[in-house]
Design brief:
2 strands, two-stranded antiparallel ribbon, 211 residues, single chain, mainly alpha, 10 helices, Tetracycline Repressor, domain 2
Length: 211
């Protein structure tokens, strides 16, 4: 298969908002290239020059947008030393990003069939995973999280909480800011992952040592 050329920034500016609007407002299977072409003013021939199908088009956009999120995460946690604040910032930046990109949130977590999404590279969210791995390694080295807390646990919790908050927000008509949900879950999240401090010795221990 011949590799497709990279799309120009000018075409992105015209195309991306239309694609995310179409997929966030309609059933995944009801959206087609012709409708995208008509609304964006970009011919179908031009679209097929850059993308092999509507799935290729959509998941390329989702992947690029999620990489933007990864860049924002790295920028906002750079220089932070306090692990709790670093993880809190991670959640806040993620929620705020989807507040700024609501059609992306709805498309990626509500309207796209999970099986189709899982088949794309966007689903793996590799940039975010690298960041999560780095944070967990630093946290464990500093004794800031329980000793048996692994990167995969963090990834599970991060994605589960993010997706659940988006689904709940969407179900209730998107009436609030996702970033405003932080106080509803973060303190509980931190109590789960943080080690206990024994007052008599002032040292951190794993929670399972107390059972």
């Amino acid at each position: 298969m011949t590799e497709k050329p990279p799309i120009t920034e000018n075409l992105k500016a015209r195309l991306y908002p239309v694609v995310l609007k179409q997929f966030s407002m309609n059933d995944f299977h009801a959206v087609n290239i012709r409708d995208i072409s008509k609304e964006s003013g970009i011919s179908t021939g031009t679209l097929y020059k850059y993308y092999s199908s509507k799935e290729d088009l959509l998941f390329s956009i989702i992947d690029e947008k999620l990489r933007e999120l990864g860049s924002l995460l790295r920028m906002h946690i750079e220089g932070l030393e306090d692990i709790r604040e670093m993880i809190r910032k991670l959640f806040w930046v993620t929620m705020n990003f989807f507040d700024q990109n609501p059609e992306l949130a709805v498309t990626a977590f509500i309207t796209v069939p999970l099986k189709s999404f899982m088949a794309s590279k966007a689903y793996r969210r590799e940039t975010e995973m690298d960041i999560l791995n780095d944070i967990v390694e630093k946290a464990k080295k500093n004794g800031a999280v329980i000793s048996d807390f692994e990167s995969r646990h963090f990834a599970d919790l991060y994605h589960m909480i993010t997706q659940r908050q988006i689904q709940n927000w969407y179900m209730h008509g998107m009436k609030w800011k996702l970033a405003d949900t932080m106080d509803q879950f973060f303190d509980f999240f931190w109590r789960v992952v943080a080690p206990l401090l024994t007052p008599e010795h002032g040292k951190f221990i794993s929670k399972k040592e107390t059972i």
